[in-house]
Amino acid sequence: MKHSFLLLLLLTTTLPFISSEHWCYQSQDECEEQCYGPSKWHTVYAKCGGNKQAPINIVTKKTESNPKLKPFTFEGYDRAQDVLVKNNGHSVETALPPGVRITGAGLADAYKALQFHLHWGSDGQAGSEHTIDGERYPMELHIVHLKEQYHREEEAVNDAVGFAVLGFLFEESGEDNPSYKGLIDALGRISHYGFNTTVKDLRLDDLIPKQEDLARYYRYEGSLTTPGCNEAVVWTLFEKPIPLSRAQLTAFSQKLFFNTGKPMERIFRPVQQAHGRTVYRSSSSSVLASTAVLSASIISTLGFWSFQFLDLTR
Ligand SMILES: [Zn+2]
Q1: Catalytic residues, which ones?
Q2: pLDDT tens for residues 250-297?
Q3: DSSP H or E run through 213
Q4: What is the pLDDT of residue 218?
């Protein structure tokens, strides 16, 4: 009896702290909010302390070329659709309708798109989750896909390749990117937690670089970058960044707020240890058929990667 009372006491005193809304980013943790920042996630969500966590810093000179990493086949990315965009308290998230899927690119299965969301910094400054040779980009787009055999996310969390997440980095450019106008205009309508709105005629193809620029990417096995941090993700990080103007990048942290009313800024998890994992890089020459074009491609590919190596030596 005494033991059950103690157990009940323990449950009632600990359960409120295990709420899914109780984790937060470092920007909230340091503001004396009662929440668990990234350095404490593992105390509540044990998997966050695992050894296949994401994001990571990609050291380009240590990546291994993998000829199986051919270009993706994208389906439904070219379809204009009305999508629901919401402030989920941790980011801006857009649910994607059925029929959007990816195959190829060294993936053993087809994956269907569920949603996309973004990670950003403060006022357009460094805010990507992955870093490349230590460089953090201003923002990062994640398009989350679920292995086609599963119906719900819960079914995939114990499969090391249950999800395929496509990650795109952003870079600051001198002019507005017109393809992002609809999404950025919508931010003002979902400033607060729980708000949602519709963005009309959104095409995923317009949000990401052109297909010919998507043959170069990095690949590794990791985790979800928010609690519960399940190690169930095939990660793809594309080399070509998406350009946005400073004003467009800044709009995210200026127009959106956490449920506490504080600006939604620096919403990225710090990079995690690789723990010996190999990061592979794609071979981009497979898209071209003729010998002449193939040779040109090999030269440009070699040029591209040697440029990457040269860049490292600075
Ligand atoms: Zn993400």
Answers
A1: 90
A2: 999 999 999 888 999 999 999 999 999 999 999 864 444 333 344 444
A3: none
A4: 98
How far is residue 249's CA from residue 298's CA, in Å, rounded to a whole number?
Answer: 35
Mean pLDDT within 178-185: 98
| Gap from CA of 311 to ligand 1 centroid (Å) | 27
The band of 30, judged by pLDDT with boundaries at 50, 70 and 90, is low
Q: Where are the domains of the chain?
A: 53-282, 284-314
- Compute the residue count for the chain: 314
Q: Contact 96/113 with Cβ under 8 angstroms?
A: yes
CATH 3.10.200.10 fits 53-282, yes or no: yes
Instruction: Quote the CA–CA distance of 6 and 27 in Å, as a whole number.
Output: 36
The 10 Å Cβ neighbour count of residue 20 is 11
Q: Is the pLDDT of residue 69 over 80?
A: yes
How many angstroms is it from 294 CA to the middle of ligand 1? Answer: 35
Ligand 1 geometric centre to CA of 75 (Å)? 21
Per DSSP, 42 falls in state H
